[in-house]
């Protein structure tokens, strides 16, 4: 069963409180980021008060969330709980700020405990991405990212801490007369979850399935060893479930989760083939492979990307190369701290 989708604004980032399906509204909040313009917070009705799915970035136009709730007849103090799909700042930190003021319970996937603990140690520790970039053959980029992450950690005043409740795969979260089924979908982060309402046919997808972009893979403070393989497995897991509406964290609501998952799986198959071709042509490191491929819809070169985007590109290719090693299409050896690849 798939619910009837309410008409949505042409610009999905336009502030407001928009009906999505019966008992669910979408409140887009702007973000202090380049590239990502907004994040969707979903308000799910319940007799005990609304449940929020994701929350936004603490301090980033938080008043728009308050205003959105007021349009629906609620105050922040009415919120019964906040279920967060993963621990990135634009999803998690405003939940912690609301908890600090109103005591609202915050729920998060249990797999996020590694990154939550690692983030709590900032700025006394170095982001894992710096070491991963060195192994990928990008030492200059690693040094730039290390400086950037240290500066961001020192300037970061967003609240941090553990949730009140850790959510487990398969758990049912009762919200009024509906049940939101928790599904672990690691990849974007190791503890990412989606919430599936099979009764109305809707998936609160977080960053797992996005309608217009491909999510970053393993970009967190405690990444898992094989994030892309986990992501592909998670996509197939959700693809095997009955189709539903796609309620993403970034981008417009769309009518089919399956359609977008098929596009994402095709995209990664194409990138795997392109990465393999680069190694066959003589590229030995993830950085060298990434430098030989186009990036973004504008097909930019690696050297033309901003530091963070270039780092994400190299790390994404490293994850693709590791999938090819696991598939025995490539072999890998670490030489002087750098992973070098060759055709099997």
Automatic annotation (TrEMBL):
Task: Indicate the segments annotated as coiled coil, or none if absent.
Answer: none
Q: What is this protein called?
A: Glyoxylase-like metal-dependent hydrolase (Beta-lactamase superfamily II)
Q: Which SUPFAM superfamilies match?
A: Metallo-hydrolase/oxidoreductase
State the source organism's domain of life: Bacteria
Positions of the Metallo-beta-lactamase domain:
38-250
Gene3D superfamilies assigned:
Ribonuclease Z/Hydroxyacylglutathione hydrolase-like
């Amino acid at each position: 069963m798939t619910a009837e989708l309410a008409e949505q604004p042409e610009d999905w980032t336009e502030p407001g409180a928009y009906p999505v399906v019966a008992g669910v509204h979408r409140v887009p909040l702007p973000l202090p980021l380049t590239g990502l313009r907004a994040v969707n917070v979903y308000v799910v009705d319940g007799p005990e008060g609304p449940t929020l799915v994701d929350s936004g970035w603490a301090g980033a136009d938080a008043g728009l969330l308050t205003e959105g709730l007021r349009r629906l007849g609620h105050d922040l103090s009415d919120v019964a709980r906040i279920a967060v799909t993963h621990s990135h700042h634009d999803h998690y930190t405003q939940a912690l700020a609301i908890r600090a003021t109103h005591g609202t319970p915050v729920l998060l996937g249990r797999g996020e405990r590694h990154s939550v603990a690692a983030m709590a140690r900032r700025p006394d520790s170095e982001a894992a991405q710096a070491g991963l970039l060195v192994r990928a053959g990008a030492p200059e980029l690693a040094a730039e990212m290390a400086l950037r992450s240290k500066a961001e950690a020192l300037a970061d005043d967003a609240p941090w801490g553990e949730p009140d409740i850790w959510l487990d795969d398969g758990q049912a979260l009762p919200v009024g007369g509906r049940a939101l089924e928790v599904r672990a979908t690691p990849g974007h982060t190791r503890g990412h979850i989606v919430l599936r309402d099979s009764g109305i046919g809707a998936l609160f997808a977080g960053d797992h399935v996005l309608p217009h972009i491909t999510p970053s893979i393993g970009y967190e403070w405690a990444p898992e060893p094989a994030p892309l393989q986990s992501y592909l497995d998670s996509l197939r897991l959700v693809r095997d479930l009955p189709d539903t509406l796609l309620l993403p964290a970034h981008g417009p609501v769309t009518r089919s989760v399956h359609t977008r998952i098929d596009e994402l799986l095709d995209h990664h198959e194409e990138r795997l083939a392109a990465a393999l071709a680069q190694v066959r042509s003589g590229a030995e490191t993830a950085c060298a492979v990434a430098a030989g491929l186009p990036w973004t819809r504008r097909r930019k070169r690696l050297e033309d990307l901003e530091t963070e985007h270039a780092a994400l590109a190299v790390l994404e290719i490293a994850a693709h190369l590791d999938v090819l090693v696991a598939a025995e299409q490539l072999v890998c050896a670490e030489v002087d701290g750098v992973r070098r690849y060759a055709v099997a």
